[in-house]
Design the sequence.
């Protein structure tokens, strides 16, 4: 952390001293480069960190610039008007970001759709600016309005300080516990939702904050240059920002900032001597980077990836305060004639059963019986076609997954579903975000986890691998990590979809032990989809059999073993 | 076995880092039906998908006839005479029966002749060529699937759990057709099954897969074949 | 509003829909088969327009410009598919970026060769024709015929040929199609080349209505992109979207303002997708 401040101080000193050393032309260009770099930083936060490819940050830059230019041209400049225009810039940008966010992010939206909307926003903003007549100056924009009477050197210092400050804050933020959540969103948004996080709200909030950064940059641009034009808000500028970020290295913050300054600065010299060739070279470099070096030029050249972070300190593990055991009389899972159909095809029909705390219920049946569909219905209110589901007495209605998690539900997916680029400790920390608001500026040095999660980590030796990125774990370790993440939510109901698929015998035994322990010692209610009937027999307290979308048997392990019906379904012995 | 159509040696495969199939070796000769038995999740479908080329093996070799196809893409394997009837979503639901069958062939001009074979196996299909495949019943779809797999006169046919959820009469029909394809047309057939009786009635040899490894093999004509299989599959 | 104005408005709606349909078809077919959005589509449109310009400057028949434009687009598309798009299959967002970069390169190359200035191409059909007593541009009416030919040709290609069947199979279920011996990589190559060729053809078709400059493709790209987003992979849905959204554009342009009209398609399409993520498809 102290290194960050040291570097930031050096940069601040450099931008403050810069005007003493540079000629006016260079100063002029660098002001613009600094401001563009700040916007590129906002693109990197959205794209590089949270995985939202946006072409629309230019719109907020334009909104900020026009807020200043319009206020100054209508009312002249005074410090009060300056403040007013800044407030207007931030307000308008935030409002626009809210609208864009509402359009782009909802449960079930796709990354492509969000990118589509990000294209629409700048197009709409530029067209509005075009249609503004004398008020907005239409296609020629606004010039010759009153500006704050700063010297060009002052503007250089203001823009430089702004850029350095924003970058510093961003670096501190992405390294903080809260910043890890952005990466978690990028790696696996569904997993985030099933860790109880309102991903749409987080994405909208991030968009609003980055929109404000872009708007301030735009405001400074209008103030320092005295000229605004609709192209500043346009989608061509929006895509240029993406290109700079890609070349600089997405997901590195410093890469895009330095890349933008470098490219924009060189452009203004190069486009004088070889105007078209320069853009051509830039385009070719861009394609090469996207195809061959997705991490960007600067990290490729310096050979330094953000991944091997020096600051990857491993937090100590600690046991969280134990929660009271779930009330054994409470019905944990309640299904009343749940059905699911696609058109005329019925996947589930009239499924009703209840499960109580401390029970370990296995859901078995051949492929296509509807087991995974049932799991989906239990954890996402929008999934089922009919019937009622309650978790711990809360009707889930049509609520999205993160609300179901709020009722005490945890869901483990069939294929291990973790955050690939985060370390084991970070994955677990993200699972705790629902219960404890993370710090926005530092990393906690202890990670509190419920005893059951600690037990899982210990049993699978994951506690020795806290700093390992999740993508480097073995398949079995990933499964165990995901289970630990689910348990870290402190749920009282856990859904598990084939937790033993692809595991070795020894890993199966371990997972089996963990699951029975969760049910018996911690009083959780577990519902498990499982193909391996030996495994089911060893650990279940009850078995529910599905066949062709119907519940055909609900009984003890003995009932199931004795059942002729089950043997028929499984071995096809009906024709014997 | 030099005359084998399919020979698999030391094959390991799986999804990402997870190994699901471990060091499997097997051969299927022309005119022979080999059935792979095993419970769900034991790696049977993974093995078929690897043989067809959808999954890249972690280790081992796959040969079709004399050709090593281990590194070849899926469509090249089809061109070598391998046809595959997968378990799920295996028909183009919105396309007609005719188009589904046409897709099994590499050239349209062979269609009429190939249709003759289909007509002999499943007469009803020839009557309903214009109907969208998605409107057929479950059993009819399975028959269409098998018909398409046999349409090309393949050297090797891979069939994944074709009997699942079918009524006895359809199962019998499929058994007859597959038997005949092997016995009369000399096709090599590799079946994946959970349905023991169907497996024993169609196959010449069996192999039981457990946690991705072959744990038992034998001839289906052995008097104790059923007992061996059921003890391996016991619930 | 009198009868004549209504008639003109109706003709404008039909011809605008036809133009949009022609421009978007190439993008749709690429999106349908490859699941990637070709942001170089706008540049291919521009390329086609310049091909038309070259044809007319060489003194060739204006009709010859059309196949020339198609060939230019298809050849360029084939090259691009091999070098840039193929490695990005499976990274759809990166494919958008890379094809956008290609668009920049093509635009700059065109600028290097032809200069930045706006140029004009003569129309192969000039003058007006009497439609129910109203004079209307012959060329705009011809564009309706062109759209019908393009749409009909594509429907025939997809519906009645072996390649079309293979293509539909790849669209519906690529894994399954590969298992039946279809070389999905080849189908994608053909698709991308054809789609790019169509973009070139569309560029040559629209130039007599406007002008040629190195950035002319960008606004067309945006509208085509939005139309494709609401149409999924269906030609029929694209036709419906072109008529409805294009119609809305014409009505709003003439009744409110051309600027609002210019926004109609992007805004309506974005809202439509928010309410109905499948758009016009089904």
Sequence:
């Amino acid at each position: 952390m102290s290194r960050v401040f040291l570097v930031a101080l050096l940069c601040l000193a450099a931008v403050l001293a810069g005007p003493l050393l540079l000629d006016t032309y260079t100063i002029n260009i660098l002001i613009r480069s600094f401001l563009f770099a700040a916007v590129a930083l906002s693109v990197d936060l959205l794209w590089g960190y949270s995985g939202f490819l946006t072409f629309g940050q230019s719109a907020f830059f334009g909104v900020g610039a026009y807020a200043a230019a319009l206020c100054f041209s209508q009312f002249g400049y005074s410090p009060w008007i300056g403040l007013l225009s800044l407030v207007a810039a931030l307000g308008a940008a935030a409002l626009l970001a809210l609208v864009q966010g509402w359009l782009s992010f909802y449960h079930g939206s796709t990354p492509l759709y969000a990118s589509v909307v990000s294209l629409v926003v700048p197009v709409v903003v530029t067209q509005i600016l075009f249609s503004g007549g004398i008020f907005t100056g239409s296609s020629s924009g606004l010039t010759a309005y009153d500006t704050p009477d700063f010297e060009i050197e002052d503007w250089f210092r203001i823009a430089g300080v702004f850029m350095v400050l924003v970058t510093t804050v961003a670096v501190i933020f992405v390294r903080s516990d809260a910043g890890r959540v952005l990466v978690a969103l990028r790696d696996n948004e569904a997993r985030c939702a099933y860790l109880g996080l309102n991903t749409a709200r987080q994405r909208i909030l991030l968009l609003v904050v980055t929109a404000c950064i872009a708007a301030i940059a735009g405001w400074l641009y209008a103030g320092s240059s005295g000229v605004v034009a609709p192209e500043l808000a346009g989608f061509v500028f929006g895509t240029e920002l993406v290109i700079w970020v890609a070349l600089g290295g997405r997901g590195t913050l410093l890469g895009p900032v330095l890349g933008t300054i470098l490219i924009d600065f060189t452009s203004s010299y190069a486009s004088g001597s070889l105007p078209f060739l320069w853009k051509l070279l830039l385009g070719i470099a861009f394609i090469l980077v996207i195809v061959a070096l997705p991490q960007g030029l600067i990290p490729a050249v310096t050979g330094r990836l953000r991944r091997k972070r020096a600051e990857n300190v491993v937090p100590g593990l600690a046991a969280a305060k134990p929660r009271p055991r779930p009330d054994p009389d409470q019905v944990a899972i309640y299904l009343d004639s749940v059905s699911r159909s696609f058109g005329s095809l019925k996947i589930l029909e009239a499924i009703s059963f209840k499960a109580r705390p401390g029970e370990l219920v296995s859901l078995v049946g051949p492929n296509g019986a509807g087991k995974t569909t049932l799991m989906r219905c239990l954890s996402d209110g929008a999934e089922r076609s009919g019937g009622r589901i309650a978790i711990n007495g809360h009707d889930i209605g049509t609520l999205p997954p993160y609300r179901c998690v709020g009722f005490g539900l945890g869901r483990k997916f069939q294929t291990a579903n973790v955050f690939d680029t985060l370390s084991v400790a970070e994955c677990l920390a993200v699972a705790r975000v629902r219960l404890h608001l993370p710090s926005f500026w530092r990393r906690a040095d202890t990670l509190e986890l419920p005893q059951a999660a600690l037990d899982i980590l210990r049993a699978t030796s994951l506690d020795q691998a806290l700093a390992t990125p999740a993508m480097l774990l073995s398949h079995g370790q990933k499964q165990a990590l995901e289970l630990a993440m689910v348990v870290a939510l402190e749920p009282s109901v856990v859904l598990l979809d084939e937790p033993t698929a692809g595991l070795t015998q020894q890993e199966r035994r371990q997972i089996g032990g963990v699951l029975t322990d969760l049910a018996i010692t911690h009083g959780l209610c577990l519902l498990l989809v499982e193909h391996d009937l030996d495994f089911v027999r060893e650990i279940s307290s009850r078995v529910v059999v599905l066949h062709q979308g119907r519940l055909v048997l609900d009984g003890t392990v003995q009932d199931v073993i004795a059942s002729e019906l089950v043997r028929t379904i499984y071995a096809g012995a009906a024709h014997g | 076995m030099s005359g084998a159509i399919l020979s698999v040696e030391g094959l390991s495969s799986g999804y990402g880092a997870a190994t699901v199939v471990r060091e499997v070796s097997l051969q299927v000769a022309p005119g022979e039906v080999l059935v792979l038995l095993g419970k769900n999740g034991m790696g049977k479908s993974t093995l078929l998908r690897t043989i067809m080329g959808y999954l890249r093996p972690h280790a081992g070799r796959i040969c079709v006839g004399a050709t090593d196809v281990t590194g070849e893409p899926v469509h090249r394997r089809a061109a070598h005479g391998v046809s595959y009837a997968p378990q799920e979503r295996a028909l183009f639901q919105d396309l007609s029966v005719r188009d589904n069958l046409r897709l099994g062939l590499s050239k349209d001009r062979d269609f009429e002749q190939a249709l003759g074979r289909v007509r002999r196996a499943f007469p009803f299909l020839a009557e309903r060529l214009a109907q969208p495949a998605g409107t057929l019943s479950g059993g009819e779809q399975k028959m269409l699937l098998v018909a398409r797999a046999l349409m090309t006169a393949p050297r090797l046919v891979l069939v994944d759990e074709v009997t699942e959820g079918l009524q006895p009469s359809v199962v019998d029909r499929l058994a007859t057709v597959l038997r005949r394809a092997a016995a009369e047309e000399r096709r090599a057939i590799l079946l994946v099954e959970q349905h023991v009786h169907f497996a024993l009635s169609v196959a010449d040899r069996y192999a039981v897969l457990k946690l991705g490894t072959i744990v038992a093999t034998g001839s289906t004509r052995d008097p104790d074949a059923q007992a061996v299989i059921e003890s391996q599959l016991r619930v | 509003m009198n009868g004549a104005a209504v008639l003109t408005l109706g003709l404008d709606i039909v011809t605008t829909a036809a133009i949009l349909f022609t421009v978007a078809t190439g993008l749709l077919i690429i999106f349908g088969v490859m699941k990637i959005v070709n942001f170089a589509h706008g540049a291919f449109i521009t390329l086609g327009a310049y091909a038309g310009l070259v044809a007319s400057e060489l003194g060739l028949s204006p009709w010859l410009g059309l196949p020339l434009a198609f060939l230019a687009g298809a050849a360029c598309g084939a090259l691009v598919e091999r070098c840039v798009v193929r490695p990005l299959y499976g990274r759809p967002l990166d494919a958008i970026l890379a094809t956008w970069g290609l668009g920049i390169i093509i635009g700059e190359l065109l600028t290097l060769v032809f200069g930045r200035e706006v140029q004009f191409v003569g129309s192969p059909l000039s003058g007006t024709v009497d439609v129910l007593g109203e004079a209307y541009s012959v060329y705009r009416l011809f564009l309706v015929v062109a759209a019908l030919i393009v749409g009909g040709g594509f429907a025939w290609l997809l519906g009645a040929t072996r390649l079309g069947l293979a293509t539909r199979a790849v669209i519906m279920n690529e894994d399954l199609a590969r298992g039946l011996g279809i070389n999905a990589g080849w189908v994608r190559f053909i698709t991308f080349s054809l789609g790019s060729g169509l973009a070139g053809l569309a560029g040559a078709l629209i130039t007599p209505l406007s002008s040629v400059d190195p950035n002319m493709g960008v606004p067309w790209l945006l509208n085509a992109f939005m139309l494709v987003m609401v149409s999924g992979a269906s030609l029929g849905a694209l036709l419906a979207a072109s008529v409805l959204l294009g119609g809305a554009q014409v009505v709003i342009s003439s009744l409110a303002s051309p600027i609002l009209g210019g926004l109609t398609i992007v805004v309506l399409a974005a809202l439509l997708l928010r309410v109905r993520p499948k758009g016009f498809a089904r």
